[in-house]
Write a structure and sequence with these properties.
alpha/beta; about 280 residues; 2 domains; six-stranded parallel beta sheet; Rossmann fold; three-stranded antiparallel beta sheet; globular
């Protein structure tokens, strides 16, 4: 039997579904940070500053806040607000709709919520493009940035935003920054902690239940967040099953017996096949 058919049986026979999703899931939807998509949106920045993908641009030492926020506003708008909802996310939601599921993800592009996933069943561990935080930080709150970001995009000229649009902390007046985990200044706000508690409660509720740990697009950049815990949980609970969906799936060093699947093909294709009606 094909692995996809086996996984369908596992899915249908599971009381609980824990999804652990990484950047590969968004990449499978076409949300690439390089190539044509980068060139179409950042050719001017590439020409002037010499970086060749969006990720590298996020770490570039721009000469001013006006230039930095011209780049970041365009980046955030493209990847958080202006892009469509990925087909793989829609199909994944169809798979779990009406089931007892939870999503743990390192993705920061808000695709899960936009696809219909319940906010109370999501834990974005690494932040959200749609949030600002104080750069100090002087307090542990985050702020929705859609209105400010879109104003920056609309009003930027020659790779600069007006100085009046540079975001500043409403409490201490320091510069604002993105709520993305890059160092020890990342703000874990009340929503983050509530989501962490929801995740822990869901994992505890899986004890003694047939549980599928479905892992689409998780690489080895931060294995301690999703991949390693998923391997350990599967090894520790005989009623857990683990399925890794990736172009080049990494196999667990732990003995998971016949309770592990590694499906090496396009992630969007795998999810579409899973969601297809018999």
């Amino acid at each position: 039997m094909r692995d996809i058919e086996v996984l369908k049986e596992w899915l249908d026979g599971s009381e609980k579904i824990l999804i652990g999703a990484g950047a590969g899931l968004s990449s499978a939807c076409g949300f690439s940070y390089s190539g044509r998509r980068f060139h179409e949106n950042f050719a001017d920045f590439e020409s002037k500053f010499g970086f060749h993908d969006m990720y590298s641009g996020g770490f570039y030492p721009f000469p001013s806040e006006e230039v930095k926020w011209a780049y970041w506003s365009r980046f955030i708008n493209l990847n958080r607000y202006a892009c469509e909802v990925g087909e793989a996310y829609k199909n994944l939601f169809d798979l779990v709709r009406g089931r007892d599921y939870f999503v743990l993800t390192t993705n920061v592009d808000h695709q899960f919520q936009r696809a219909g996933f319940d906010k109370g069943r999501l834990f974005y561990t690494q932040g959200d493009y749609g949030l600002f935080q104080c750069s100090v930080p002087c307090h542990n709150s985050t702020y929705d940035n859609k209105e400010q970001i879109q104003a920056m995009v609309a009003e930027q000229r020659d790779m600069k935003i007006p100085s009046a649009l540079i975001p500043r902390c409403p409490v201490c007046g320091a510069l604002m920054t993105t709520n993305l985990r890059a160092d020890d200044k990342f703000v874990e706000d009340e929503g983050w902690h509530a989501a962490a508690e929801n995740y822990s409660a869901f994992v505890k509720s899986c004890a003694g239940k047939s549980t599928l740990l479905l892992e689409p697009g998780v690489g080895m950049n931060t294995p301690v967040i999703i991949k390693s815990p998923f391997w350990k949980m599967t090894a520790s609970h005989k009623n857990f099953r683990y399925a890794c969906l990736d172009l080049r799936p990494v196999r667990s060093p732990l003995d998971l017996g016949g309770r592990a699947l590694y499906i090496a093909q396009d992630i969007a294709k795998s999810i579409k096949e899973l969601a297809a009606k018999d």
